[in-house]
Each structure stands twice: as structure tokens, then as C-alpha cells.
Amino acid sequence: MIWPDLWSDPKVLPPRGGFRWGQKTQKMKTPIKILAFFLLICQIAQADTLTVKQDGTGDYIIIQSAINASTDGDTVLVWPGTYYENLDLSGHNIMLASLDLTTGDPQYKYSTIIDGSQEETSCLWVLSPTTFTIQGFSIRNGSGKQGSGYRGGGLYLKQGNVSIFNCIIHNNFARGYGGGIANYFTNLYLSGTTIKDNHSALNKGGGISFTASNDVTYTITFDTINRCSVYNNHAYCGADISFSSALKGFKIVLDTFSVSQPGRQHVYSVNKYFYPRDSFPVQMNHYLRESVNGDLFVSPTGDDSNNGLSEATPLKSLTKAIQLVVSGSVQKNTIHLANGTYSPSSTGEFFPLGLFSNIDIIGQKRDSTILNAENFTHHLQSPRLEHSFNVKHISLVNGNGDINRSIMKGSFVLVSCDSILFEDLLFKGNTGYQHSSGLVIGCSQLTFKDVTFEDNFGGKTLGGGTMYNAPEYPRLTDSVFIENCIFRHNLPNPDSTAGSGGAFSTKSIATDSLVNILTNCLFENNQVDNDNYNGFIITSYDYGKAVFSNCTFADNTVYHQDISAVFFVWGFYAKAYIYNSIFYGGHPREMRVGSNEAPCSLWIYNSLIAGGYDGIGGDLDFNFVHYDETNIDTDPFFLHKWEHPYQIADGSPCIDAGTLANLPDFIVLPETDLAGNPRIVGDSIDMGAYEWNSTVGIDKYQYQPIKNEKPKLLHAAPNPFNHQTTISAQWDFTGHVQIEIYNNSGLRVKILKSGTSGRGSIQTRWDGKDGNGNILPAGVYHVVMFWDGKEIEGIKVVKR
């Protein structure tokens, strides 16, 4: 039976192990409780039992028909069978039970089944204040409640008091929160129930998602005697349990859980600002798998029952590896992916996969290690405040963020993360209404290096922005570095009006926030159609800032004819700085500065701009454009053949026309251009993403990059760095050699080497501290080498 008036008193919770006919309730001592109990007994005396049997010998053959006919206090008693129904219990204060209630035999939960038939709604839902109990069922194949973002695959509970006894909630799916159970503003009691193999595709809480109010306290109770089990559920974080806001006395007490050391992959808790709390303990009697605080190996030919500790015993799915590896460990753990395709159909992946602190995901070879989302959802997503993870040498294909437009990012979402490297990746064939590949929001010290974005469909293929931070959290947003990347043939979605195409956008919400720094990138043959922002590059509407150095923009097209341009600076005080770049072949024009509310600013130096200053659209009296005298307007003489058609050919006016002296200190040019040629030859640099050399234009089978005739004396790796970098130097002279480090203000902070020496070399580590051992702030530093007091070489290093 139900206890509609007594839920607020923990002394009169529903009996452990479920209700049994004839079972006595707990003793109540106060007169008020006695009166309440008397009223309840009167209600029970008037209650009916409505039977449901598929053979027609009961009152009903359909469970929903019995529910609709019930009144408060009734019991709907269901005989064994598989009932393909989606049940609405809103407002029905009843008990729904199998013969487990009358016989005490828990085996009835296996033979009495509510099957949602994947009908894009929950197996069972409550949308209004309701007090009910369900006991002794298997609940499977639900798909989330329509109208609620498809949340709660098995059960969607919104308002009321609910008890669940001796049930199995399994193989349900939700596009939003709560693959098994989505619980909103509901007091919930769970006893003897197993929640397993459920999936939340676009959000947290693959098994259970609890959401409460910041103003009202709700109670979630796990029976500590007749314990529940929660395991092997899937979501990008909080795969088994996710909860937020005010939960009174919440403790996770279980019989069986997924792993021995739960992390944010498994249990995820956030405060009222949606920032994660520290890890939440799980009390468990058993676990399915031992967690691994070390490297794991994965291969499509592996087996998820393997331990994954070596290449000889690999796991099969990346999903299982992320589930097993310890997150947030002090040490760096790496998941090694062997060549092959990882997908839902071939290796059993449950996309999207989570990205967590100090867990690297490294493929064997980019073009041979493939994550294929099979156009079901996006590939990767990070919870907030994760840090220090790398993703390398992987192709991410066929992602789709347009399921009900809930995510609208085709391949990845990174939120409020720090110190991240995406390197040697290919994003291809992904679809997303807002961003066809991915979105970076509120992140700091994020680097995209040697990444290709190609043939993606929808909105801008990559977007960067800031976000409002909770009062107790510092603003994370700092810099996003995009180096040696290619944006090629990214298009509007041809199947709908969802997404208008384009390559890159950036947005900020504060004057001191995000700076996007793009160096040595190629943007070619991208298209925009009917874009509200009218350009490929939206340089942060609302305060954002972007800096472009040695980029090539070629043959891009915007079909929105009113105020369109390839490069568009728009919004409140947006700023863009362009150095050593080429804009050519764009239609209908290359650039526009377009805000009528707060002036935008555009600075252009040492660049080839087709159409010149007169070709820049927009109100140039209200907005500000500095078009330097070092710019040119002419044909760049692209090579137009072979693997790199936008290399500049012999005789190009872009050769040696760039500037090194006027580049901002925070720009660190890569060692090579997109074709693998040295980026700087001698003391000069060319415009665009390619450095000319004398072999360009000859037969490609004879093509060899030229060598820098003046070898560098100083090197630093890694650069940029987080904790330490190795400074290498070599010299072929005799005299006093001194290597010093200066900050960006010109003050010497440390001497690495000093002494008289003959020809030699040195390797020394710099840990980012000054000569007194103090930790220096993040920023640009200069390593300078002196010979007999004369400066002979210097390099920039960036400390993150």
C-alpha cells in the first residue's frame, strides 16, 4: 500500500523489501501518528484491487486501463507477461505490483515485464504530484519522455513521492538525462532494485539522474538492508548516477556497483551553479571490475573481458577502457587505441565518450584509428573543470549532434576545461546545427595542433567562446591556440535548413576573456548559405578577440548576398588582428566590419587582401579598421596543383613579405608550414600558411623541402609547456657561454648556464621557476644565449 501522508517522517518509510499483504507497519507513538494511521486504515479498507491478466480472466488485460480506472489507495495487481505499454501514472496515488506483492516471490520481477517498445517515450512517467509504489517488474526498452527533452528512458518522475521495490530497470535509452530513471523534484525510495545497461546519449545519468530544487529539499533514499545494484550504465559522465542541488541526507549505499574506484565517469554531482562537487563516495558490497590506475590498451580485435593491461590482452571498446581507468589521478594514464574502427556496431561503443583529467586517448595512426559515431550522436564531451588531457592521432567521423537539436555539435563539446591538447586529428563527415565539428566554451590553454576539419555539414565547424562563471569559481577562460590546422570544404547541411556552413566562430561575454590565436592555418573552399552572421569567421560577437598569423583564406564562398563576407567582425567591441595572411578568391568579398551598436576593430599588417581597403564592407566610420601600408592587393600566385594547391609559387609577391618583428610576443610560429617546409628561412617569412622554396613547381616526385641553412642553436620542448620544458643548446665556438631566461617585460628571471666553454652542447630542464625557486606565472618567456656578452640567439617559450 501507499503512505501518502507520512513520507516526511523517516520513521514511517515503506517497509524494507517491499510490501506484503497482511504485513504490519512500524509502530507509531504519537497521537497524531495514530490518527494518521487510523485514517490510512480506513482508506485501505475502502481500497480495491484491480487485476490485470493477458488471458482475459482478470479485470483488465491492459495495465493502463486498470490505472485509469483506479482511485487513490487502490492496488493494480499484474499477472506475469510482457506488456508493451508506456504508462502514465500522473495523479494516480496507487500501488502497481506484480505477484511479488502477494506471494513474496521476487522471481516474478523477471516474468512480469513492462516493455516500452522504443516508442520514443518512457516506460512509465509521472508529470504531476503523485504518491505511488511500484513493485516486482522488469522495466525495459523505454526511450525517454516526449516534451521533456526525451529524459527518463525507463521512468520519468516529476513531483511526488515514489517507492520502487524489487524491480529490474534495464536496457532503456534517453537522449537527455536519466537513461534508467530521470527524477525531478520527487522524493524517491529505492529498495532491492537493479539498474543496469541503460544509456543517456546526450547528457548525464545513464542509470539514474536526480535533480532537485535549490529552494526545496528532496529525499533520495537507498535501502541499506535490501540493497540496490547499479552498474554498467552509460553516459559521458555520471554514467551510473548523476545528481544535483539540494538532496537531504543523500548516501549511495549499494550491493553491486560498476567499478572499485568510482570517479566522475560513474558518479557525478554538481552544485546549484552546475559546477562539479568533489567525488562522492559509494558504499558497496561488490563491484563488477577492478579499476585500473595505469595505461590501458584497446583493439577492435580485443575483448572487454580482458584486463587491457598490455597489447597482448587488449579491451575491445574505448567505452570500457574509460569506464575502468582511474580519473583524476595524480599520475597520467593513457588509453592506447590500436588501428581500426571503433563504433557502436563494431566494438559496442556508447557515444559520446567522456574526457577526464589526466586521461589521454592516443591512437596508433590518424588515418587508421577511427571513431565512427554512425550518425547517432557526437563523439566526445568533457564535464566542467576537467584538465590535463590529450587526444591524438585519431579520425572522428560521422558524428551527429542534431538529435532533436539537443547538442547541435557534430563531434565534441569542451566546457570549462584547462590544459588540453588535440593533436593530429581529422574531423570529417560530422553534422551539427550550430557547430558541425565542435564547440569550446570557457576553456583555458587549449591547443589544436595539426588538426584537419574537412567535409563537415551544418554550422561553423569549430566555435570558441566564454561563459558566465559561478561566483566561487575563477574565470577559466584564457587562450585557445589553433596551429597548423586545415579547414576545408565545410558546408551547409544539404538535407535541411539546419546549419548554414562555414569554418570558425568565436564569442566572448567579457572584455578580458577569450583570445583565439590562429597560426599557420588554411581555410579553403568552405561555404556559407543564408547565415545570420554572414561570414566564415565571426570574430566574437560580444567582446571576443582573435589573432591570425600566417593564415591562408582561399576560394571561400558566402551565398547570403545582403551584407556577406568571408571574414566578418561583428558584435559588441569585437576585435581581430591579422598578420602575414592571404585573403584571395573569396565571394562576394573578403572582409566586413559590421556593428552599429558598439564599434568593432580590425587591424591588418603585412597581408594580401583581395580588394584592398576599399573592398572591406561595413560602416568604416563607426567601426575601426587599421589597414597598414605593408598590405598588398594582388594575385598571390598559388601553385594550384598537387597535394598543397595553395602553396605560393615562384615569383609570388608574398615571398619574404611577412613580418617577424611586429608579431605579438604571444605568437609562437610552428617549426614547419603545412607542407613540412621550414616555417622561417633566414630572417624572413612569407605571407600565408606555406613558405616558398625553390623546389615548389617541379615534378612532385622530385619534391624535397629545403633545409634551413642557418641551424638553430636553441630549442625548447615541449613548447608551450605546463610544468617543465627541456632547453637544448649547442655551439661550435670557444668563449664564455651564458643562457638566461627573461619575462615578457624584459626582466631576467633565471640563469640556466654560465661559464667558459669550448665547442659543446647542453640539455637542461626548466621547471617554470625563477632563480629563487618561486613559481612564475603563465605567460611568454624568452630564452637568450650570449657568447662573450653578446646576444647571439633567443627563442620564445610559453608557460601555460
User: What Rg do the Cα atoms give?
Assistant: 31 Å
Largest sheet: 19 strands, parallel
Instruction: Let me know the average pLDDT.
Output: 83
- Low-pLDDT segments: 1-13, 24-41, 467-475, 697-710
Quickly give the CATH architecture of the largest domain.
3 Solenoid
What does the overall shape look like?
A: elongated
How would you sum up this structure, described in words?
The chain is mostly beta strands and 800 residues long. The relative contact order is 0.04. The protein folds into four domains: 277 residues, Pectate Lyase C-like (3 Solenoid), CATH 2.160.20; 108 residues, no CATH class; 267 residues; 86 residues, Immunoglobulin-like, CATH 2.60.40.4070. It is built from six helices and 61 strands. The chain has a 19-stranded parallel β-sheet that branches.
Features:
Pectate Lyase C-like; mainly beta; disordered N terminus; 19-stranded parallel β-sheet; elongated; 4 domains; 6 helices; single chain; 13-stranded parallel β-sheet; 800 residues
Task: Chart the SSEs and their pairings.
Elements: H1 31-46, E1 49-52, H2 63-69, E2 75-78, E3 81-84, E4 87-88, E5 95-98, H3 100-103, H4 108-111, E6 112-115, E7 124-126, E8 130-135, E9 138-140, E10 155-165, E11 168-170, E12 173-174, E13 181-191, E14 194-196, E15 199-200, E16 208-211, E17 218-222, E18 228-231, E19 241-244, E20 247-248, E21 252-259, E22 267-270, E23 282-289, E24 296-298, H5 318-324, E25 333-337, E26 340-342, H6 344-347, E27 353-354, E28 359-363, E29 369-372, E30 380-381, E31 387-397, E32 412-415, E33 418-428, E34 431-441, E35 444-454, E36 457-465, E37 479-483, E38 486-488, E39 504-507, E40 515-519, E41 522-524, E42 527-528, E43 537-541, E44 545-549, E45 552-554, E46 557-558, E47 567-569, E48 575-579, E49 582-584, E50 591-593, E51 601-605, E52 608-609, E53 617-618, E54 624-627, E55 714-717, E56 725-731, E57 735-743, E58 748-757, E59 760-766, E60 779-787, E61 790-799
Parallel strand pairs: 1-2, 2-5, 3-6, 4-7, 5-8, 6-9, 7-10, 8-10, 9-11, 10-13, 11-14, 12-15, 13-16, 13-17, 14-18, 16-19, 17-20, 18-21, 19-22, 21-23, 24-25, 25-28, 26-29, 27-30, 28-31, 29-31, 30-32, 31-33, 32-34, 33-35, 34-36, 35-37, 35-38, 36-39, 37-40, 38-41, 39-43, 40-44, 41-45, 42-46, ...
Antiparallel strand pairs: 55-56, 56-59, 57-58, 57-60, 60-61
